[in-house]
Amino acid sequence: MYSAQVCLERIRIMQKKKGFRYVSTMLRDADIPVSTIDNIKQGKRPSIDRIMELADYFDCSIDYLVGRTDNPDMNRK
């Protein structure tokens, strides 16, 4: 089941792995609106397209970002 809190934590983990200090800087680099994080913080579910963009940018699985697995590489080819 989707958890906004888990999703935010996973984004922060991947942000640090990418070497970004601030989420906003990382999102600008990924060409993803900063409002995405604000919406998740408010409990809104991001669109599947946005989750796919984040997963592609972080080179991790969608399941990892939404908390369905603890393995960021699961099902990645």
UniProtKB/TrEMBL annotation:
MF (Gene Ontology): DNA binding
SUPFAM superfamilies: lambda repressor-like DNA-binding domains (SSF47413)
HTH cro/C1-type domain residues: 30-65
InterPro entries: Cro/C1-type_HTH (IPR001387), Lambda_DNA-bd_dom_sf (IPR010982)
Pfam (any one): HTH_26
Gene3D superfamilies: lambda repressor-like DNA-binding domains (1.10.260.40)
Protein name: Helix-turn-helix transcriptional regulator
PROSITE patterns recorded: HTH_CROC1
